[in-house]
């Protein structure tokens, strides 16, 4: 096993086990860097293929002498019926392979335990921060006698809604998919339909066992780490603590630690557009004139929806950058080549330097799938958002952005799309609606200006939360203290 960059003298050792998907790996790397910048030794558990994807980040961490060990554990893809080298959720062949993927991840339990028990692993582990998707890390933590802290990668608001729905079972009171229910336990009245809720609230048998295990492990865990900040989600961490009975530490926006370095460009994957090409295109635009359109690390559309989205963007009166993860057909690839030129837009086929784009003054709005990382990155850039949720907890994030924070304009999607648009060729949002929402997002009128002002209002608080004595900085200190006290208790017990 390779140990990369180990030089800490601290007695505390955090073990970070992210779910193997870019939307989970990226914020966990930031958490690793934040902990390491406080002198804490961190082991970041990953797999060989994922390690090579994040190589630029690993190199940067190594150059800055941060005490982070990146630990690649062999991932048994083929043993679990997955293609060779399939080590990330974005490369599973079909939605149903998710079960195989999660089972393959479970088999990391033994190699992880061996690594953590190895006398060469110094200092010995003091705490595991585990993605909620890895329920098996609870056994590892219990065996080692260290706390397991859960990271979901969700907003506090969404976590609270999920916790309350699980408790009160409000979703069971609606009889049809078009009936609305009121989200329980919130001061504000917020309505949703059952299909818009995360999958565990649908009437599905698929994945039930996996979800049950995740829930049971979360209930046994010692606290919840959230990538958010108090000034954004005021009051929700307190409500979540009450509802879940767990300690909650809001330690974000963690992406702030990527600012001002190369991580801005190659974050999670190597960007497929040169930094200078992207910034010179943006430099040639007026402030607030460009819409950035991106649907996360996996969001993709079936052919008809892809065509409607592209046509709607062209029909709007605005410049745009469209980051596309997958073009549904060769024909649509040709359509892109023929109709989308740089006098009007920049099409990025593959990984975009999202943080860099969002921070450019030419960008005035962000059309997002409401993945929490992207939502928060847009908020940190002080941008209003056009919300187009696709799946998972993204419809809850949309409610936070549009109805609670009032910095979002909804495109009006009624139900989740199938996984990465691979199954049905359906249109959820037509080209007229795409164009209308872009106009509204970029609108200079009173309503648009008020929305923009509210969005801008979060930019400084986001920065302040992360600097010394800021709310998230202090929360991270409290998390470290919590683990340190547990560690001291353990030492006292051993010494009698
Ligand atoms: N991202 C990026 N370039 C892309 C697509 C995504 O840098 O072309 C990053 C984005 O900045 C965010 C993460 O990937 O940090 C996506 O996480 P999110 O929670 O928004 O969505 P998910 O991919 O999990 O659906």
From TrEMBL:
CDD domains: GT1_Gtf-like
Entry keywords, A to Z: Glycosyltransferase, Transferase
Gene3D superfamilies: Glycogen Phosphorylase B
Protein origin, superkingdom: Eukaryota
EC number: 2.4.1.-
SUPFAM superfamilies (UniProt xref): UDP-Glycosyltransferase/glycogen phosphorylase (SSF53756)
Keyword check for Glycosyltransferase: yes
InterPro entries given in the database record: Glyco_transf_N, UDP_glucos_trans, UDP_glycos_trans_CS
Class of enzymatic activity (EC top level): transferase
GO terms, molecular function: UDP-glucosyltransferase activity
Residue stretches making up the Glycosyltransferase N-terminal domain: 12-254
Membership in a protein family: Belongs to the UDP-glycosyltransferase family.
PANTHER family linked to this entry: GLYCOSYLTRANSFERASE (PTHR48047:SF168)
The protein's name in its UniProt record: Glycosyltransferase
Biological source species: Iris pallida (Sweet iris)
Phylogenetic classification of the source organism: Eukaryota, Viridiplantae, Streptophyta, Embryophyta, Tracheophyta
């Amino acid at each position: 096993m390779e140990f990369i960059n180990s030089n800490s003298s601290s007695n505390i050792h955090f073990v970070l086990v992210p779910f193997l998907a870019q939307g989970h790996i990226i914020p966990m790397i930031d958490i690793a860097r934040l902990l390491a910048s406080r002198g804490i030794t961190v082991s970041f558990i990953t797999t060989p293929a994922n390690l090579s994807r994040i190589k630029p980040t690993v190199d940067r961490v190594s150059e800055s002498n941060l005490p982070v060990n990146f630990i690649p554990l062999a991932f048994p893809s083929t043993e679990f019926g997955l293609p060779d080298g399939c080590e990330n959720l974005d490369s599973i062949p079909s939605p149903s392979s998710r079960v195989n993927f999660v089972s393959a991840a479970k088999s990391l339990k033994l190699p992880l335990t061996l690594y953590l028990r190895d006398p060469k692993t110094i200092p010995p582990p003091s705490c595991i921060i585990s993605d909620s998707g890895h329920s098996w890390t609870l056994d590892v933590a219990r065996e080692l006698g260290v706390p397991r802290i859960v990271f979901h990668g969700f907003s506090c608001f969404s976590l609270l809604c999920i916790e309350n729905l699980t408790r009160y079972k409000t979703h069971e009171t609606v009889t049809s998919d078009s009936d609305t229910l009121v989200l329980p336990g919130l001061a504000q009245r917020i309505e949703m339909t059952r299909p818009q809720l995360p999958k565990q609230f649908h009437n599905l048998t698929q994945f039930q066992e996996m979800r049950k295990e995740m829930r049971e492990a979360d209930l046994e865990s010692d606290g919840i780490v959230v990538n958010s900040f108090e000034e954004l989600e005021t009051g929700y961490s307190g409500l979540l603590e009450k509802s879940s009975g767990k300690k909650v530490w809001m330690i974000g926006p963690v992406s702030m630690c990527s600012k001002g370095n190369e991580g801005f460009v190659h974050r999670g994957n190597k960007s497929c557009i040169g930094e200078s090409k992207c910034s010179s295109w943006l430099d040639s635009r007026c402030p607030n004139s460009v819409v950035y359109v991106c649907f996360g690390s996996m969001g993709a559309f079936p052919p008809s929806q892809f065509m409607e989205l592209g046509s709607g963007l062209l029909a709007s009166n605005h410049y745009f950058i469209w980051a596309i993860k997958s073009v549904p057909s060769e024909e649509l690839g040709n359509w892109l080549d023929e109709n989308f030129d740089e006098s009007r837009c920049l099409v990025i086929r593959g990984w975009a330097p999202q943080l860099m784009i969002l921070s450019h003054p030419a960008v005035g709005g962000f059309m997002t799938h409401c993945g929490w990382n992207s939502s928060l990155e847009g908020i940190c850039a002080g941008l209003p958002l056009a919300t187009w949720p696709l799946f998972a907890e993204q419809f809850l994030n949309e409610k936070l952005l549009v109805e609670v924070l009032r910095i979002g304009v909804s495109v009006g999607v009624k139900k989740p799309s199938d996984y990465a648009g691979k199954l049905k060729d359906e249109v959820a949002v037509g080209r007229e609606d795409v164009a209308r929402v872009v106009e509204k997002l970029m609108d200079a009128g009173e309503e648009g200006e008020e929305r923009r002002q509210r969005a801008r209002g979060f930019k400084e608080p986001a920065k302040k939360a992360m600097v010394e004595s800021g709310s998230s900085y202090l929360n991270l200190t409290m998390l470290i203290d919590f683990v340190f006290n547990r560690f001291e208790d353990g030492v006292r017990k051993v010494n009698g």
